[in-house]
Amino acid sequence: MPRKIIHVDMDAFYASVEQRDDPSLRGRPVAVGGSARRGVVAAASYEARVFGVRSAMPSVTAKRRCPELVFITPRFDHYRAISRQLRAIFARYSALVEPLSLDEAYLDVTDDRAGLGSATATARAIRAAIREETGLTASAGVSYNKFLAKIASDQHKPDGLCVITPQQGPAFVADLPVRRFHGVGPRTAERMARLGIHTGAELRACELVFLEKHFGKFAAYLHGAARGLDGRPVRPERQRKSIGAERTFGEDLKDSPSVLAALDRIAGTLWARVEGQPLRGRTVTVKVKYSDFRLLTRARSVAAPVETQEQLRDLAAMALASLLPPAQGVRLLGIALSALAAPEPPAVRVGEPPPAQQTLAF
């Protein structure tokens, strides 16, 4: 029997929390993180997204796109407390919960713990409980694997629900742009376009050998996903080994000032992610990909966990120093924080995985 997977994703979580707590912000474009002059947007309200404001965007750019944008200082302790509420809700409906971040998680509801009769009914109940108990909205995707459940949760945002059954999966994937496949970034999508691959149907037409030639180890995943297949289970014991952020540039960076400016912005993006987790790390690794696709990494480690964005940026800059000025154009720059001091909080797990003969409906 296929699994029944729900992906729950809170709607503009940080910004929605701020709008909930401060009625004067409701209906206004809000950016959490950064300031009008510097920094990076960690989250944007839907009112801000209308103007093209997005997370990881430099604050100056965001303010230029939306002059009325209101910047709010993040309150990560508060967001973490609400996240604990969410996980308590999830635990009522599934023994198998895999948190991805403070505001999203996978649930395997093959075992109908709440006795609601279907995965769709379970998703509706979870969303209703979130609204009633937190005053926030969540979108949910229901499907038979993680790949499709995650895509489905984004289909009708905000405050939406989308169900993709095993019968619908292959046709749904056929019409899906490849850029929406998990793991397919801008550069990979461009490479696929050069090969004449734009949709799931065109990807499905490719032989595995052809995909391996062009995409290496990633080929097996692409081959299965194009057919609506993804065998990854929901893993409650999942622990993060590193947290990273990177950016591929539309035009190569060719001098030290531009590289360092980009490094500063990426450090801001990464730190917003670190602050969203009960994690700290001791090793900062910088990744540099040049215009010829040559990839180099440099790392710096410290005795105590990194505690501030400034410390993260400084360590990244020190790690990068030996590669400056760049020998050639830089097309990608990334920073990762590893040697984490604490694991991701484990999800509540009660009992054993659901039996294979369970027949919960979608």
Automatic annotation (TrEMBL):
Mg(2+) binds at D9, D103. Binds 2 magnesium ions per subunit. It catalyses: DNA(n) + a 2'-deoxyribonucleoside 5'-triphosphate = DNA(n+1) + diphosphate. This is DNA polymerase IV. It comes from the Bacteria. Poorly processive, error-prone DNA polymerase involved in untargeted mutagenesis. Copies undamaged DNA at stalled replication forks, which arise in vivo from mismatched or misaligned primer ends. These misaligned primers can be extended by PolIV. Exhibits no 3'-5' exonuclease (proofreading) activity. May be involved in translesional synthesis, in conjunction with the beta clamp from PolIII. It is an enzyme of class 2 (transferase). The record marks Y14 as: Substrate discrimination. The gene is dinB. GO terms for cellular component: cytosol. Pfam families: IMS, IMS_C, IMS_HHH. The active site is at E104.
